[in-house]
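Hi all, posting the design record for the shared folder.

TITLE: backbone redesign
STEP: 1 of 1
STRUCTURE INPUT:
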């Protein structure tokens, strides 16, 4: 909602309509209420007239799981003829929702009834269930049902076909045997046993097999399913055409007759004559699991067919072109319902071009589809009804259902807009209004200010007809009023409706392919030659600094800098606001004054631009969680959500506003409706939540790093030795109710007054002890990740470079449970209160004490005086010496944690440190790699700075000799830390690797030929000669490349990968798993 009191002034009490119109002018215009209704609205607001109950009625629908609003008045309601007040039953800020439901008396009960999530608790339902349970479950009652149907058969004639409905009668295995159905119904063609208690496959098959004339059988929701009975049923009943509502491979005339309502319980028959098929005009084949249409489904057999529904079928045994050709032969076909995308392709327009006689496609007029250019068309969307489990408390049920009912607005006045939106639920009348693309009513939130002031405002929703509405007609509204397909209307409707999942899954896959093709940084070397130097004037005068940041004013105390209150005379402008060309012009600044911001830095500091920049530079790197800009990429996100749900993967997400700090309007949820509805409170990104973060003493934490940027092109950046951990206050949990607990899932506590600061060295010491890790290894990964972020900006946005820019950014990092860093966000002009307040100790470099009061002295010294005190360059880790010969005697238990091996004194280096003969001969069977490689017929010898080539330490390289026995194989494997170039010295070797799009690159190499395996790619080497060995020499660009053999990673881990995982992943049985494990030399 826009500014609520823009025209109001203190004392503007509403006494007349003129007062009302003047004070509420902006609100009336923003709400879109027709001017002809303003005076009537005023009278109802002033007198608190709620007369909707006299005009409308609320009716149950969708079997009581939803309600609808109908016009109950005796007379029709004309367009814009009246206006109605709708009360708000519940208003709240999102973090308070669960607490209010749990604590406000009667609130959860009212909301549960309004949202239809209390059906199982209603007395009438419970009594009905009790009555039903008294009847069902007894043999006597079932026999009564059977005898009644038997009598009907006798009336038609003893040889008549029988159709038996025994659904949900509590029939167990022994009762089924006792019923002896085959004797009572020798011509039984359909048997419905849905929802009973059948468990024993042998007993069930014993009885069903006797019913040899069965055409249809339903065993749905019986415990016997899942016990290999399906195959027995299909093999044992040769004429079965429908099984558990699905077509079998034998489906023909009878199955088509059933779907066309020619055959049924009221008209059972054992066969369908061709004349009856020829009269079929409408046939519904939806959700029949049809892979290939029956041969009898043809224009010659169904010449009158005018309406066809084939939704929900894979139809994967016939091509889309053949289907279109088949359907084109039905000359009377006017209406078609089909999944889009689906078996007929991805475009409604393409389908219509192939089937020009269609007048309706998925309930939408064909001409309107062509005119609008819509590729997806559907007018019959299935409503998304609330789901809950019986054991769920009412409050939690309401939380799950509320996104189908919520509305929202923000409060505002002339000075500011409220950072946190208000959500509300309309009363029972307003909440019963359902959606329609062709709505006949419109609603709008409205704040009535009887005293003329915002703090006295009363919130309502205003309802008025936009078309003529007749008695008994349903009253609907457009849930997405004013939002067209240019704003992702179809995708946003998923908040309330179930739409074709295939379309969104395809959008997700296309988006992933696009990301995978992005790799600017991996192919572009960012220039690093330092270009900046001290800007201290040659005459030695102090640099004048203008700032509006209190910490800089207090702690910048170096004599080289002096504060000034006049920005025009400053050398350095260090402020919290954006300094753009308009600000410069207004204040009188010049382009030769240094500022603490870079042009176009929004590519880093705005969350959606940061993700976009990284995606363009790196594709989809591991250190950035899957991230979607909801304003542009909602469809791929929905596809990602559906894929994760289908595959049983984690599906928790975090919604973040583009440009708000301190976790304002940030929400954690696994509810797709919530994700979509939260778009209404402002533009956001949706990012995969790190569900399994590294924890500190059971609590979640993140790390704030300070990055100092002197230049973008060339890239010249430094990492401050001062960083700190931000800790959540509560123990971490993934219980659904915890997502409303700020102090469980968020770490920024200094703005809520309950921050528990921990000194960084103490945190690191305790973390290493708790997790048995080396912090400096983690620190190196974080350094590399942060550098990648700024390389992204330099590669994608070189226009950021400005020689008069120097900036400080806060980079927030979280570790997952494998201690891998994940980038959260980059912050402009970060709050450095902790850095200034607390002394700490450097964990790298000198490890000296760093005084908090010197923090900004250090920052300004680095950025403007070319100093590197208490900072470290974020450049590639090049050697600072000519070489670093490994000190093989360095004690492994040393307190120092190094990325490599410690160096000896360079003066002690000798030529033999740089030479090795370890590759001159084949590895023996006693070699450590021999046991692992024996099953495949290969041996590998790798140089190692610790044992065979100390001069290679810190040089980023290794060499390997691979001996392949005749027919030997170096099986599929990866080197996680290195690329490899392999040179064949002897023999013929087939080599290959697969990339991340599963494309295979292979080549047969002979002596003298080489091949490159990119870093991390799965690759193999195979000696094609079964009579002679082969020899390969490789170079790798890491002194510790690592090697992970795929077969061992899957079948020889310790502890073993669970058998169920292996069986499902490789579509094998348990015996296969154990056989492979034995063959690889592992335990089974």
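Okay, here is what came back for every position:
SEQUENCE:
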């Amino acid at each position: 909602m826009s500014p609520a009191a823009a025209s109001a002034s203190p004392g503007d009490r509403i006494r007349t309509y003129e007062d009302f119109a003047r004070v509420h002018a902006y609100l009336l215009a923003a709400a879109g209420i027709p001017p002809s209704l303003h005076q009537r609205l005023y009278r109802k607001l002033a007198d608190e007239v709620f007369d909707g109950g006299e005009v409308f009625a609320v009716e149950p629908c969708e079997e009581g799981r939803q309600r609808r609003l109908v016009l109950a008045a005796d007379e029709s309601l004309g367009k814009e003829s009246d206006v109605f007040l709708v009360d708000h039953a519940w208003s709240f800020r999102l973090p308070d929702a669960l607490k209010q439901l749990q604590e406000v008396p009667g609130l959860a009960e009212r909301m549960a009834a309004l949202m239809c999530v209390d059906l199982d608790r209603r007395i009438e339902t419970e009594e009905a269930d009790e009555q039903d349970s008294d009847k069902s479950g007894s043999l006597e009652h079932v026999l009564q049902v059977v005898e009644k149907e038997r009598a009907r058969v006798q009336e038609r004639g003893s040889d008549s076909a029988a159709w038996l409905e025994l659904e949900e009668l509590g029939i167990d295995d022994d009762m089924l045997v006792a019923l002896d159905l085959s004797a009572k119904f020798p011509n039984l063609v359909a048997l419905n046993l849905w929802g009973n208690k059948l468990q024993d496959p042998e007993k069930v098959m014993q009885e069903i097999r006797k019913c040899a004339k069965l055409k249809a059988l339903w065993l749905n929701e019986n415990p016997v399913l899942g016990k290999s009975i399906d195959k027995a049923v299909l093999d044992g009943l040769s004429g079965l055409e429908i099984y558990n509502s699905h077509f079998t491979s034998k489906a023909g005339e009878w199955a088509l007759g059933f779907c066309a309502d020619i055959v049924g319980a009221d008209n059972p028959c054992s066969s369908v004559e061709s004349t009856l098929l020829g009269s079929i005009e409408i046939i519904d084949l939806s959700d029949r699991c049809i892979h290939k249409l029956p041969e009898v489904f043809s224009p010659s057999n169904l010449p009158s067919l005018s309406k066809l529904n084939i939704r929900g079928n894979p139809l994967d045994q016939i091509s889309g072109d053949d289907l279109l050709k088949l359907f084109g032969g039905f000359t009377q076909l006017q209406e078609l319902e089909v999944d889009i995308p689906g078996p007929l392709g991805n475009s409604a327009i393409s389908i219509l071009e192939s089937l020009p006689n269609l007048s309706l496609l998925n309930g939408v007029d064909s001409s309107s589809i062509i005119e609008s250019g819509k590729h997806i068309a559907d007018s019959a969307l299935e409503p998304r009804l609330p789901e809950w489990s019986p054991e769920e408390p009412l409050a939690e049920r309401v939380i799950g259902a509320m996104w189908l009912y919520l509305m929202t607005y923000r409060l505002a006045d002339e000075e500011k807009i409220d950072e946190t939106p208000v959500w509300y639920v309309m009363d029972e009348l307003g909440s019963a209004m359902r959606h329609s693309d062709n709505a006949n009513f419109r609603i709008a939130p409205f704040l009535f200010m009887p005293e003329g002031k915002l703090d006295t405002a009363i919130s309502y929703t205003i309802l008025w007809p936009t078309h003529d509405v007749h008695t008994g007609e349903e009253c609907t509204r457009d849930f997405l009023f004013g939002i067209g397909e240019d704003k992702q209307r179809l995708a946003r409707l998923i908040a309330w409706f179930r739409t074709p999942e295939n379309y969104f899954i395809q959008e997700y896959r296309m988006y992933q392919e696009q990301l995978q093709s992005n790799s600017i940084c991996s192919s572009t070397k960012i220039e690093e030659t330092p270009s900046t130097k001290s800007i201290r004037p040659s005459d030695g005068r102090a640099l004048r600094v203008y700032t509006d940041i209190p910490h800089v004013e207090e702690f910048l105390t170096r004599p080289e800098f002096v504060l000034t209150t006049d920005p025009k005379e400053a050398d350095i402008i260090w402020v919290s606001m954006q300094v753009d060309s308009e600000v410069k012009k207004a204040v009188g600044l010049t382009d030769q004054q240094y500022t603490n911001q870079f042009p176009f830095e929004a590519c880093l500091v705005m969350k959606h631009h940061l993700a976009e920049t990284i995606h363009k530079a790196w594709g989809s790197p591991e250190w950035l969680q899957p991230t979607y800009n909801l304003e542009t990429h909602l469809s791929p996100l929905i596809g990602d959500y559906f894929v994760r749900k289908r595959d049983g993967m984690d599906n928790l997400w975090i919604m973040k506003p583009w440009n708000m700090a301190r976790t304002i309007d940030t929400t954690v949820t696994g509810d797709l409706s919530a994700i979509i509805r939260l778009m209404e409170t402002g533009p956001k990104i949706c990012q995969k939540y790190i569900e399994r973060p590294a924890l500190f003493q059971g609590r979640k934490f993140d790390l704030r790093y300070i990055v100092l940027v002197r230049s973008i092109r060339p890239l010249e950046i430094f990492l401050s030795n001062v960083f700190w951990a931000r800790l959540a206050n509560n123990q971490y949990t993934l219980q659904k109710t915890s997502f409303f607990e700020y102090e469980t899932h968020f770490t920024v506590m200094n703005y809520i007054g309950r921050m528990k600061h921990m000194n960084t060295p103490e945190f690191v010491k305790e973390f290493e002890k708790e997790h048995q890790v080396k912090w400096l290894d983690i620190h190196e990964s974080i350094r590399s990740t942060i550098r990648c972020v700024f390389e992204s900006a330099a590669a994608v946005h070189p226009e950021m470079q400005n020689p008069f820019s120097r900036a400080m950014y806060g980079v927030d990092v979280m570790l997952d449970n494998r201690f891998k860093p994940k980038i959260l966000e980059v912050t402009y002009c970060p709050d450095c209160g902790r850095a200034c307040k607390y002394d700490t100790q450097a964990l790298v470099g000198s490890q000296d004490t760093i005084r908090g009061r010197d923090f900004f002295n250090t920052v300004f010294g680095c950025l403007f005086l070319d100093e590197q005190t208490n900072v470290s360059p974020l450049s590639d880790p090049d050697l600072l010496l000519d070489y670093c010969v490994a000190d093989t005697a360095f004690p492994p238990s040393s307190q120092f944690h190094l990325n490599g091996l410690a160096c000896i004194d360079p003066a002690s280096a000798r030529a033999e440190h740089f030479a090795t003969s370890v590759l001159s001969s084949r590895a023996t069977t006693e070699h450590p790699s021999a046991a692992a490689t024996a099953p495949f017929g290969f041996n590998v010898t790798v140089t190692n700075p610790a044992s065979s080539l100390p001069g290679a330490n810190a040089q980023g390289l290794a060499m390997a000799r691979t001996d392949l026995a005749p027919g030997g194989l170096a099986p599929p494997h990866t080197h996680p830390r290195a690329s490899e170039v392999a040179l064949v010295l002897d023999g013929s070797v087939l080599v290959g690797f697969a990339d991340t799009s599963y494309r295979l690159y292979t080549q047969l190499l002979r002596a003298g030929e080489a091949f490159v395996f990119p870093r991390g790619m799965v690759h193999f080497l195979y000696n094609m000669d079964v009579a002679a060995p082969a020899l390969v020499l490789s170079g790798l660009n890491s002194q510790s490349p690592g090697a992970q053999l795929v077969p061992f990673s899957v079948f020889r881990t310790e502890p073993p990968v669970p058998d169920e995982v292996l069986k499902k992943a490789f579509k094998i049985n348990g015996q296969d798993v154990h056989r492979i494990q034995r063959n690889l030399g592992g335990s089974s």
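COMMENT: The longest strand covers residues 699-711.
Let me know if anyone wants the other runs.
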